[in-house]
Amino acid sequence: MDEQRTIKESITLIRDVIVNHTEQSKVFYERIFNRIESFAEGYPEEASEKEILFAFYEDLTGEKPFLKPSSAKVGFIRKTGIVINLYRIMCGQEFGKKAVFFDANQRIWFSPMLEAYADWQQDCGKSKLTIGTRIGRIKVLFNYLDQRGLSSISDASIEDFIEFPGYLKNRGYTSQGCHNILYTVRDYLKSPNVKRMIGCNPMPIFSRMHTNKHERLPSYYSAEEIRKVLSSIDRETYIGRLAYAFMLLGCVYGIRSCDIKNLKLDSINWDESKISFVQHKTKVPVEFPLLTEVKFALLDYIKNARPKCDLPFVFLRTRPPISPFSQNNHLSDVIRKVFEKAGIDTTGKHCGLHSLRHSLATTLTEMSVPINEITTILGHSSMTPTLSYIWSDIPHLRLAAEEVPIYAKTSK
Questions:
Q1: What are phi and psi of 277, to 5 degrees?
Q2: Which of 28, 159, 323, 347 is the most exposed place for a label (fewest CB within 10 A)?
Q3: CB–CB of 194/117 below 8 Å?
Q4: What DSSP character marks residue 42?
Q5: Contact yes or no for 156/145 (Cβ under 8 A)
Q6: What is the DSSP annotation of 218-279?
């Protein structure tokens, strides 16, 4: 990022952005602005604006800019977010709604290459979500090359590519994680602008990639554990009503997190007691019966916790400006705290909404529900992804195998 604006100019621009925020929020911003301006007065004139802001961040957090501070208190994170946003504005970028921590001193010579790849992926018809995931994986390659002192992928030798898989393993990536990154890098190396830049042929290195898909067991919780978690939620608060409705949709129907966040008011047919929508990931429409417990949980949230506004989404953030939850906001901290409060052992397991899908799939399997019905409930387009949710339940997988018809091979 190149410095384009002064601190004062950037503060003025941020004031324009937050003009519709609450008075309390604007006062909070002004306190940080005043601290930054007072801090800058003690610096010599030859110091750059960026140096001043970096020094202020270190003084504020005790961390190098803009690494995540050890304190996770909401108010403190908001302060760091204001400083990061100020830096973004100084560099000509847009105002961000949340603090995105990064190493400001790290070289980002590869940004234009990532942008070119993103454009190519968009031309190939890939979704923004897919492109974002792939960009994150390719950054691992560029960070690796950066650590080796390279400043362009054209400078990479065949030895650099040969040692890359070992670098991933040393960083602690699982077999599946390494496979995902290497697969994406292979796709990246096929892009037209990259093929012209590379002076060697690394493709044979990525031609045979093996992965242990069962390296990590799915995070599964019993029906009794889920009931204990739900009963521990304080439903007299906004966050409690939100968490309860969110978790019911996840554990009763197995709805993905992104679809819960995208759920709209008109997706709920109160008269016919149905919930219907088109899945974000598969684009397949699904419909569920609106069970009584779920109906009351949604009504409780909508009437007593949801902000009053004209937005069509069911679930909304309360902090101004009112908006739906972004796909980057996984609410994992909220759900994790609910599990902790209920005294559920989460050692070695995830405890987010996706774990509720695994739990539902496993519970249905234990109830001898046919695999094709579980596939329909989870909204999968085929049985293959469903099997990955319940593969460890060997006895019931044997039953699932009996449901799949065997077709005799025909001789040619």
A1: -165, 170
A2: 347
A3: yes
A4: T
A5: yes
A6: -----HHHHHHHHHTS-TTSHHHHHHHHHHHHHHHH---HHHHHH-BGGGEETTTTEEEEE-
Cα(88)–Cα(144) distance, integer angstroms: 25
Query: What pLDDT score was predicted for residue 82?
Result: 93
CA triplet 274, 278, 281: central angle to 5 degrees? 135
Dist CA 172 CA 13 (whole Å)? 42
Cα-atom radius of gyration of the chain, to the nearest Å? 25
Question: Mapping DSSP to helix (H, G, I), strand (E, B) and coil, where does residue 317 land?
Answer: strand
Instruction: For residues 187 and 118, give the distance between their C-alpha atoms in angstroms, rounded to a whole number.
Output: 12
pLDDT block averages, 10 residues each, the chain of length 412: 76 91 91 92 82 92 87 82 91 78 72 85 86 88 87 89 90 80 90 86 77 55 81 90 88 83 94 92 86 92 92 87 72 78 79 70 63 61 57 44 42 41
Q: Dihedrals φ, ψ of 268, to 5°?
A: -105, 115
Whether the model clears a pTM of 0.70, i.e. scores above it, the answer is no
Q: 158-170 and 175-189 helices cross at what angle (nearest 10)?
A: 150
Alpha carbon distance 256, 205 (integer Å): 35
- 288 forms beta bridges with 275
Residues in Cβ contact with 261 at an 8 Å cutoff, skipping those fewer than 6 apart? 313, 315, 324, 325, 326, 327, 329
Q: Which of 152, 137, 148, 115 is nearest to 187 (CA)?
A: 137
Dmax (CA) for the chain in angstroms is 86
Cβ contact 189:203 at 8 Å: yes
Does a cis peptide bond (omega within 30 degrees of 0) precede residue 218?
Answer: no
The 10s digit of each residue's pLDDT in 48-69 is 888 899 999 999 998 889 888 8
Q: How far is CA 290 from the centre of its chain?
A: 28
- Contacts of 298 by beta carbon, 8 Å cutoff, 6+ apart: 245, 268, 314
Helices within 91-234 (DSSP H only)? 111-123, 128-147, 158-170, 175-189, 192-197, 223-231
**Would you give the distance in Å from CA 53 to the centre of its chain?**
28
User: Could you tell me which residues are beta bridge partners of residue 276?
Assistant: 287
pLDDT tens column, 336-374? 888 888 898 877 677 766 777 766 666 666 666 566 665
Q: Which helix (H) or strand (E) holds 286?
A: strand 285-289
| Residue 47 burial (CB count, 10 A) | 12
